[in-house]
Design goal:
heterodimer; A: mainly beta; 7-stranded mixed sheet; 53% strand; B: mainly beta; 6-stranded mixed sheet; 5-stranded antiparallel sheet; 11 strands; globular
């Protein structure tokens, strides 16, 4: 149990549908990251929050992707009009000082 | 050429052996992370380094900023150390990841 919870663990959706994932970080962690990992690759950075402020967004994050972290607690990642290329594992991590903890991820399959 | 290169890609060793995994990078960094990913996707941060050497139990991580190189060592390896070990560097607020080293420790 890493302490970072992600929901759902698996999501199968039809192309064109919207999906939303949730991440609950470890409570005292002020930094929260979203990553995407495709099979055989290392995680790719998507976005980063410090408390409720979204400080950095990757160029990978097209306008179909949006992330929020209201009140600096849990975060949501929404993908609109999903495409087959969005199929991946979406990982959330939270950190405090020099330690980061990852959730188990949400595996998205777009059919 | 990837900005972060790890070697070896795969490593199989016997229980008790001393393990070394290497990471070289070509970008300017503010920090380097070593992470462990178990089957099923769970990732744990092992170390964050900006200089020198850190030790945690049987794990030792070193970094040479001038040579842009870091190593992760495991002493007295154990089958439970079997996992993918990933090197990631922080550059301009992003983490650039290596492809990982798959380690298998046989009893």
């Amino acid at each position: 149990d890493t302490g970072v919870s992600q929901d759902p663990r698996h999501k199968i959706t039809k192309r064109g549908q919207n999906v939303t994932f949730r991440c609950d970080p470890i409570s005292e962690h002020n930094r929260l990251y979203w990553y995407r990992q495709t099979l055989g690759q290392g995680p790719e950075f998507l976005t980063y929050f410090q408390n409720e402020a979204q400080l950095e967004k990757s160029r990978l994050l097209s306008d179909r992707f949006s992330a929020e972290r209201p009140k600096g607690s849990f975060s949501t990642l929404e993908i609109q009009r999903t495409e087959q290329g969005d199929s991946a594992m979406y990982l959330c991590a939270s950190s405090f000082r020099d330690r980061a903890f990852f959730g188990q991820g949400t595996r998205l399959t777009v059919v | 050429k990837n900005e972060v290169e790890q070697s070896p890609q795969n490593l199989t060793a016997q229980e008790g052996e001393f393990i070394t995994i290497n990471c070289s990078y070509s970008v300017g960094i503010s920090a380097l992370h070593w992470l462990q990913q178990h089957p099923g996707g769970g990732i744990v941060s092992l170390f964050m380094l900006s200089s020198g050497k850190k030790k945690h139990g049987r794990l030792i991580a070193t970094i040479n900023i001038q040579e842009k190189h870091s190593s992760l060592h495991i002493t007295a390896s154990h089958p439970r150390d079997s996992a993918v070990y990933i090197c990631a560097v922080r550059s301009n607020y992003q983490l650039i990841w290596g492809a990982g080293t798959k380690l298998i420790i046989k009893p």
